[in-house]
Amino acid sequence: MENKKAGNIHVRFASIDDNEKLLKIERESAQEGSIWLVAFREDFFGRLKYFEEGFIMIAEDAYDIIGCIGVGIDNLIVNGEIKKAIYLFGLRTNPKYRLKVARWLKSIIQELQNLLGPTDFDFGYASVKADNIASKKILKHMGFSTTAILDFYACPVRKTSQEKSVFVEREVDLETILDLYKPLEKDHDLLLQGTKAFEVMITERRLWLFKTEGAYALVLDTSGEQDFGITRLSKGLRAFQLLAQGTLSPLVRIPKMNERLRSWDVLLFGWDDIRSARKIVRKIHRCAWEEGITLINFSRDRSLGSMKGAVGSLSFRIPFEIMIYEKNSINRGSRPIIRTPTI
């Protein structure tokens, strides 16, 4: 793609030469809300490896990068049918150019429309923290609307018992993963139809499978790749953090401010009874503790109810809105979504 010009703003594909500048912008651009989060990564382009296709677009002037956005393309299953979806992620603005947000976004959105307009896709989607008003406003301007709420439960890692009845598998193969996902296709949405994301995780040995009678969990180790830090908390959460650091250590890893945090993401979590679910959770905590992990992130479509009974009261619910732009009708209905590994 050749450089496009709108006033003095240029839009182009990002290259590996932009990596350090993009990482710096990301570190200086916290996701705002009651919890301010900032990413710590070594490779800004790392997330693209999980998509069948993808790219990063940047807007710049003669002096610096103004902002960027990531685009991932995959086939997802919606209402039992395969749909081509475009995922927008990593929307960041260089703090030095906050007053130019409207201008650079207008330029980059226009270029995206030019690129994706002729593309054969069914819908676009994005995930954004429910209290991130600015990002939601931008997506609404682009024609996106909220279709589901995915509740994340951030759990500080606890030093728990061994739970010998729970089996842990580190050499997870693709067939095992597909056996877990396949039954969900009939009544859940946004499942990956392709296998590239899982193949990458298997190759890099980032998956853990926890199993016991009546429950299972598939866990993605994101440490070292998608680390993040907390830069600001609401007064209530800050007070709890300080209290917990003084009373719960050394049996609980309470995240500190501006600390680089390693985390695990629970991609799938299923159970027949709550006791089995709690056994799985305790085993995940024990393994995470031994691996030096600080936070475990569970997630669930809000329509399915709370996970507090399974994950415990020492967890922080962070709602994310899943916003969708329909190019072609996708007939979502009221089915809950499964968090894809790329969200």
From TrEMBL:
Q: Read off the InterPro entries from this record.
A: Acyl_CoA_acyltransferase (IPR016181), GNAT_dom (IPR000182)
Domain N-acetyltransferase intervals: 9-162
What residue ranges are annotated as transmembrane? none
Gene3D superfamilies per the UniProt record, alphabetical: 3.40.630.30
A single Gene Ontology MF term assigned here is: acyltransferase activity, transferring groups other than amino-acyl groups
Q: Which PROSITE patterns match?
A: GNAT
Instruction: Write down what this protein is called.
Output: N-acetyltransferase domain-containing protein
